[in-house]
Amino acid sequence: MKVLVLGGYGLIGEAVVGRLLRDGHHVAGLGRDVVDAERRWPAVRWIAADMSRLLAAEDWLPVVTGMDAIVNAAGALQDGPRDRLDAIHRQSVVALVAACEQAGVHRFAQISAIGADHSSADAFFDTKAQGDKAVASSSLEWTILRPGLVVAPAAYGGTALLRALAAFPGFIPAVMSRQPIQTVAVTDVAEAVSRAVAGSLPPRSAVDLVEAEARPLADVLSAFRAWLGLPRAKIEPIPAIVGRLAAAIADGLGLLGWRSPLRTAALGALARGVTGHAGPWNELSDHPLQPLEATLAAMPAHVQERWFARLWLAKPVIFGCLALFWLASGIIGLIRQDEAASILVSRGVSANFAHMSVLAGGAADILVGAAVLVRPLARRALLAMIAITLFYLAAATLLVPELWLAPLGPLVKTIPMLCLVLVALAVLDER
């Protein structure tokens, strides 16, 4: 069959793509940025498109014509500069369903979410439910799948946060640690999609995909810590106000393009509990969904998992330190520009040129210090930091070489900062 997977390089979408390829289908994937996906999955025909801009059936018709099935694994957690929940979850899905009906697409698998509800005050759950309603009201052979907390070898979003908290040194911090959670392996989600596409599930059915028993978040975190091979640690409940403060900061970073999973929407979902009903799936299928222990056992952790888990929490610290360092350096240089210029003047540089150089250097420091906090500009800002630092070192070596031996080490101390920039570049990718 010819199958189109929306969000084909996401946490669930990528697993679905791999499973459908193994099933022998011809797979196309759609997403906003498919460059990396094209390298990793050359057997897939990738389509670069933003769902939030495909809001009419006519927009979708060229994409879905000729397809036998559609899998919608696309979604966003919260509104932001790149994400508009109503457009992605509702408007685009309404248009997509209409296009599928016109183009004669047979089957439609919708990846929804546990807790999707029209009456929810949370925009994520409300818009997801409206998208589900558009699918369920159609004439297509539809299946709506609502996964619990998806556990996968890939690590970003909520799964990355779980790993990071589980690897916290000394203890495991947890907000709402007693809230019930039901997990599901991403391979089980892909299996369910495979069956829906093949028509081996009853058409026009909606089911939860969750393990049989719920467990508190604290137990999930402890299981991940054991999976990482780290010593047992005590769960330390974190006051809700601290969680709300962290979520507010994450929301602010979201406006700068950083897609942290620790946002208000995520806390709202946790407060509801991530639970569903395993019974309906077990009645439809002879493939019971595996519990968390089996999911983790099927994807053994090695040293790269521990590196990732530890670096994930260090990442905001790294970027925050770099931003503060460069902003402070630039501001101090501008405040004390006469002293800075006098060093150059003492080496034979004209006073005007010395002051212009100090002003330009201070402005450059402030510019890159601010730019590194903006996700779309971060890579260029980090590369600029490297270039500026190397220029400073070269200029200082030529003009004031004795600074290398100065007691406070003003030049020597730039080397660790340069190394930190290289670390920031190494951990910049989010998925």
TrEMBL record:
<dbReference type="Pfam" id="PF13460">
    <property type="entry name" value="NAD_binding_10"/>
</dbReference>
<dbReference type="InterPro" id="IPR051207">
    <property type="entry name" value="ComplexI_NDUFA9_subunit"/>
</dbReference>
<feature type="transmembrane region" description="Helical">
    <location>
        <begin position="316"/>
        <end position="335"/>
    </location>
</feature>
<feature type="transmembrane region" description="Helical">
    <location>
        <begin position="355"/>
        <end position="374"/>
    </location>
</feature>
<dbReference type="Pfam" id="PF13781">
    <property type="entry name" value="DoxX_3"/>
</dbReference>
<keyword id="KW-0830">Ubiquinone</keyword>
<dbReference type="InterPro" id="IPR036291">
    <property type="entry name" value="NAD(P)-bd_dom_sf"/>
</dbReference>
<keyword id="KW-1133">Transmembrane helix</keyword>
<feature type="transmembrane region" description="Helical">
    <location>
        <begin position="411"/>
        <end position="428"/>
    </location>
</feature>
<protein>
    <submittedName>
        <fullName>NADH-ubiquinone oxidoreductase</fullName>
    </submittedName>
</protein>
<dbReference type="InterPro" id="IPR016040">
    <property type="entry name" value="NAD(P)-bd_dom"/>
</dbReference>
<dbReference type="InterPro" id="IPR025695">
    <property type="entry name" value="DoxX-like"/>
</dbReference>
<keyword id="KW-0472">Membrane</keyword>
<feature type="domain" description="NAD(P)-binding">
    <location>
        <begin position="7"/>
        <end position="154"/>
    </location>
</feature>
<dbReference type="GO" id="GO:0044877">
    <property type="term" value="F:protein-containing complex binding"/>
</dbReference>
<feature type="transmembrane region" description="Helical">
    <location>
        <begin position="381"/>
        <end position="399"/>
    </location>
</feature>
<keyword id="KW-0812">Transmembrane</keyword>
